[in-house]
Amino acid sequence: MCRIAGIIDKSLPPAEIHQKVKAMCQVLQHGGPDDEGLFFDERNHIGFGHRRLSIIDLSSNGHQPMADAGQKAWITFNGELYNYQELKTELLALGAQFKSATDTEVILLSYLQWGTAAFPKFRGMFAFALYDTANHLVYLVRDSPGIKPIYYYTQHGALSFASEIRAFTAAGIVTEKDPHWPVRFLAFGHIPEPYTTLKNVFSLPKGHFLRWDITSSAYTVNSYYETLAQEQITDVNEARLLIKDALIKSVNRQLMADATIGVFLSGGIDSSLLTLLANFKKEQQLKTVSIYFNEQNYNEQNYQRVILNKLQGQSFSHLVQQHDFDTFLPQIIAAMDMPTTDGINSWFISKYAHEDGLKAVLSGIGADELFGGYPSFRRIKYLRYLRKINPLLFSVIAGFLPNQYKKLTFLANDHYLADYLLLRGFFSPLEIAKFLDADSKQVMEILFDTSHASGPSSYNEEHASWLETNLYMQNQLLRDTDVMSMNHGLEVRVPFLDEDFTSIVNRIAPSIRFDSNPPKKLLIDSFGDLLPPQIWDRPKMGFSFPLQQWMAAHPEISNSEFYKGQAAQAVIKKFKHQGIHWSKAFALYQIQGHV
């Protein structure tokens, strides 16, 4: 797990490329504190940079950028390849020769053996740049679940890329902001892919690769991952057996590490299940990290103890209080890379995991999206009826709707993002226009750009799962987890998003998969008596902090005079009297100084 960056630019002298790549690596040091590596091909004006967090093969053999023995290809790689041992065995049988025990070298030799057909073979989380010296090509490649990010900029016949957008600014490559980012942020609570806060800097889509032709300075972006049509699983007993087998395999291979590894244990179903499965494999070596609060409505310590009593390994538990939030908020915002209303919890748990000596942890992200753990899975059916209303009506009544119903105006747009924003959006177009002193029609045009691909329109549980997976999890949970954990030099692994596991889950008939009595029933039943009833037979809490109270007591966030404009000030006054959710106040707080 690392941070990567690079430049290909014929207009720049080699010395300047060297200087800029070095600057990119320096600002990304937090994500790779163990080592720095640079590679330059001065003749072709190429520079690759790498910051290393050593997890597999801790020796100098893992130094990057890395080349094969014949230097036919160079790579700078961020992530983990969980099936690298199987691929290595296959490559050895074909005559490949290895000089290290790294998964990085497996990627290199896989490409040299199979070309781009190697990319769908990879199982893991990764973003890498690969330079094919013989064919004068550079590839940027991102994992199919979209766990690891990679951003790129392709103006003026040049390509630049990095793991975080702050690298483009640090090197002076892109300093101009995208003027539309505040609109997107106030609607979504984050910056949705492929956009960023920088103009013309985009996120490479998951399961895609960018192919850059060095000779012509032209590029294409192509998908490499296809979901094959498979027979649906309609027998509940078969589904349970397949889920159990696949998740155990996923957890076992994601525990692979030469560095200290553990599990985030919140006390909920997903983290508890992963912890118990990891305990079978690691036993005394397993470490768990948990957080608890004095505010009892958010405190899951009793549920954490139920699981901890079943473990043999070492557990770390940390109290987080209002004082900690106030003290570390500036650092949390600085760590974000791009504004987000999430990630505070990830920042704290990652901080403590790092301080507890861990370099990698397992997280339960993905289970709610796969098995229907969110309220949206029950609310989606109401959208089906709302979509039968003429969209023009929502435009007509926009100005007359009370505040709690203003988000209905999103439905004036026949767009899947409008469905998502009704379910999970923050502010309505009219509210955003007031905050930014803009026109609501322009707000709509920015949010519902016609360049977006279409989404589903079935308005059932599968539709909700698609929205939660491809929008909320992709744009918010995974991005925030990555940037916050790497800020502390920590790798977060997500077994529920293992490609082999998700392919099985997606084959299960919806009536079985989304059985919600109790929520995530199929997942619970798949493991029989392993998961104690105290964990699943209780109200869902999620991994949440007492942020409603903490932000209301924060001297800046809750001070209406800190905000520009009457519209924003009115929202903060309402927030102070518990009339607005903390995330909306936090969104407006981050906008200050930018508008």
From TrEMBL:
Record keyword Magnesium present: no
CC annotations in GO: cytosol
EC numbers: 6.3.5.4
UniProt entry tagged with the keyword ATP-binding: yes
Enzyme class, UniProt record, top EC level: ligase
Glutamine amidotransferase type-2 domain residues: 2-215
Catalytic activity: L-aspartate + L-glutamine + ATP + H2O = L-asparagine + L-glutamate + AMP + diphosphate + H(+)
Active-site residues (renumbered): C2
Sequence positions that bind L-glutamine: D103
Record GO biological process: asparagine biosynthetic process
Keyword field: Amino-acid biosynthesis, Asparagine biosynthesis, ATP-binding, Glutamine amidotransferase, Ligase, Nucleotide-binding
PROSITE patterns for the chain: GATASE_TYPE_2
Binding sites annotated in the UniProt record for ATP: I291, S363, G364
GO molecular function (one): asparagine synthase (glutamine-hydrolyzing) activity
Pathway(s): Amino-acid biosynthesis; L-asparagine biosynthesis; L-asparagine from L-aspartate (L-Gln route): step 1/1
One family name in Pfam for this protein: GATase_7
PANTHER family: ASPARAGINE SYNTHETASE, ASPARAGINE SYNTHETASE (GLUTAMINE-HYDROLYZING)
Family in the record: Belongs to the asparagine synthetase family.
Name of this chain's protein: asparagine synthase (glutamine-hydrolyzing)
Provenance organism: Mucilaginibacter lappiensis
